[in-house]
Amino acid sequence: MTTANKTPIPLSVQVRLAVDQYLAQLDGHQTTDLLALVLTEVEKPLLEATFQYSGYNQTKTAQILGISRSTLRKKLDQYGLS
User: Would you call 58 exposed, middle or buried from its count of C-beta atoms within 10 A (0-12, 13-18, 19+)?
Assistant: First the structure.
């Protein structure tokens, strides 16, 4: 997503907008474990996008994400992406 002048919208701004929208949809209802929810919701598409970007190369994906290949493999298995 970009603005009319092609300036990228920072990821932090996009996350803030999504969280604001989620909280507004609660309409006063309580929520718990929001941090865990957000991290889980973000982690799978992050893995999918980076894995595809790297040409499905685990070594490159791990380097891009700044994690070890073994951690990447565990996460790929966790989300059924391996």
Answer: middle
Domain contains 45? yes
Q: How far apart are CA 50 and CA 43, in angstroms?
A: 11
* Rg of the chain taking only CA atoms, in angstroms: 16
pLDDT score for 1: 53
In a domain, 4, yes or no: no
Q: Looking at this protein, which amino acid is placed at residue 64?
A: I
Number of domains in the chain: 1
Domain that holds residue 55: 11-78
| Residue range 19-48: mean pLDDT, rounded | 94
For the record, the structure tokens of 3 come out as: 């603005």
Tell me which residue has tokens 């994906």. 61
